[in-house]
Amino acid sequence: MNKIDISTSPLYIKNVQRVIPGELHNKRVIHVCGRHCDGLVFILEGSCHYRFDDGIEFTVKTGDILYLPHRSVYTMSVQSNVYRHIFCDFVFEGDTPRKGIFYTPQNCSDAENRFHKLLSTYKNLSNRTFPDLLCTLYEIYRIILQTQNKVYREKDLKEKLEEAKSFLERNYADPNLSVEALAVQANMSAVYFRRLFKEQYGIPPSRYLTSVRLKNSKELMKYPFLSLEDCALQSGFSSLPYFCRVFKEATNVTPAKFRNQKLK
């Protein structure tokens, strides 16, 4: 049965059982055979590797939030000299199988402050303060939801950029292909597309398109039966004069000279 990610299928928190600080030391290995409840852990210091019986494994570090599912079976191996954390035992409503996972908040300090607030509220817990405890735990859960939403958005944007880049590499010979057309392909504004493309690949999309076209033109110039104009047009350049100008700017030699050097 598939296990859900608590950040993609929000759940209700039924109860809070305890909030306590913890500290483990280097080389400590602990086996947990069926966790008694759900758990959220904020890593204050150090790192620890978790391996679950369903094959999931990862290492958490300072600033991460770890989720441990009810009934999960796992092994934790401390990787640093000291592994300090605050953990909250609680109960999600429902018996839907959930997977162990960790999140790295955008603002780790804010997440840490909320865990300390959770701990402080628990230490002074009464019937009057229980709603505050539950409210703070929901605030932490909200951080998890926001963090994972950002991850999915970034993943979605990267996929769109990859698709646009692949589209460019397949269709560079079309003289009408432009950055604006690629932005439409990625369902973004041209300004936003240019910025994201450069951040992702280190080069503006217009320059990348030109480099792909130039690379193809150089390959075509190996064939003496093709004129320079043929090489230019089949590579996506709108005219021979424009091709010659762009080629010389990029290589510091004219296309004719480049071809003569290659064909000798």
Please tell me about this protein's structure.
By secondary structure, the chain is of the alpha+beta class. The chain folds into two domains: 13-152, Jelly Rolls (Sandwich), CATH 2.60.120.280; 172-264, Arc Repressor Mutant, subunit A, CATH 1.10.10. Helix content is 45%, strand content 23%. It has helices spanning 108-123, 130-171, 179-185, 190-201, 205-220, 228-233, 240-251, 255-263, and strands spanning 13-25, 29-33, 38-45, 47-52, 57-61, 65-68, 73-78, 82-92, 101-103. It has a five-stranded antiparallel sheet with strand order 1-8-3-6-9, with helices on one face. A four-stranded antiparallel sheet has the order 2-7-4-5, with no helix packed on it. The model has no long low-confidence stretch (mean pLDDT 91).
Layout of helices and strands:
Elements: E1 13-25, E2 29-33, E3 38-45, E4 47-52, E5 57-61, E6 65-68, E7 73-78, E8 82-92, E9 101-103, H1 108-123, H2 130-171, H3 179-185, H4 190-201, H5 205-220, H6 228-233, H7 240-251, H8 255-263
Antiparallel strand pairs: 1-8, 2-7, 3-6, 3-8, 4-5, 4-7, 6-9
CATH architecture of the largest domain: Sandwich
Low-confidence stretches: none
**Quick one: CATH superfamily of the largest domain?**
Regulatory protein AraC
Structural class: alpha+beta
The number of helical runs is 8
Broad CATH class of the largest domain: Mainly Beta
- Proportion in helices: 40-55%
User: What is the succession of H and E elements?
Assistant: EEEEEEEEEHHHHHHHH
- DSSP E strands, number: 9
Strand order of the largest sheet: 1-8-3-6-9
Q: Give the amount of beta strand, in percent.
A: 15-25%
| Rounded radius of gyration (Å) | 28 Å
Total domain count: 2
Task: Give the averaged pLDDT, no decimals.
Answer: 91
CATH topology of the largest domain: Jelly Rolls
N-C termini distance: 66 Å
Largest sheet: 5 strands, antiparallel
Envelope shape: elongated
